[in-house]
From TrEMBL:
One of its GO terms (biological process) is secondary metabolic process. The keyword Electron transport does not apply. GO terms for molecular function: kinase activity; phosphotransferase activity, alcohol group as acceptor. Keywords: Kinase, Transferase. It comes from Streptomyces radiopugnans. This is Streptomycin 6-kinase. The keyword Transferase applies.
Amino acid sequence: MTSAPHVEPPQRLVRFLGADSPWLARLPGLVRASLARWELTAERVVSPGGRGSLVVLVRRADGSPAALKLRAAGAADEAAALSRWEGHGAVRLLDAAPEDGALLLERLHADVSLRSLPDAKATLEAVSALHRLWVPPASPGAPEDGGHPFTTVEEHTGRAVEGIRAHVPEEARPLAEEALALRSGLLADAPEHVLLHGDFRQGAVLSADPGRAHWLVVGPDPLVGERAYDLARLVRDRLHDLAAGSGAPAIARRRVAKLANSLEVDRDRLRGWSLYRAVESGARHLAAGERADGEALLEFAGWL
């Protein structure tokens, strides 16, 4: 293994975590420790990268390619989900040190996601990739109750309720209350509890080498809940392109119908989760001072 290079975190990561983030201060040491642990040689940092993680393209001791991912939070959950999927539809986990936020992954083509395809083709491929992930959260043979480590959709969304009430502006208050009412109703009669990606979108599906499925999913923030929740994020993919065109509200509603039909998901449940998730994300962006993105998300929710 060669000496660890200087690691310059991508600006997206710095903006999201803040330049004074304790984790960013520890990051060079975490990279060095991970390279030494798995006898890796670093090649380059993937940029622009994610908002809560750093990915370094590396070579293993035998010369084979891999990707070292360091997460500010959530590494144990991602490792558990990738282990459960065992490479079926998702990137393969090669090794993990969750205590350091470190994951060693098979290398995919980090610069080639579904967003490189026309929207209609990308959506078709995304649907194909996503449905392979919806498996029971516990491994075969595990106890039915308490046999998995994942957070539920109910727990996850419950943490956002106060933020929605605090940060959605007064003029959008009826929309926020509708979103919260939809959440309560959807959770009250959830039809299933399967393992979800949690943050699925076109950019989370990368091209793979021959011998594997052409497109594989990366970057889960796994949850357990119903499929409509996972599919809801895909409904608003390429939102800025959608908003720039004509007839955006009608197109958004057609997306709901088309995606629901393609995966046999209840249309009303998908509409409800799509509206709720847009409001939740809008409130989060507004809280972070990202006014344009927050308002765009609330506008999208209003179309539904």
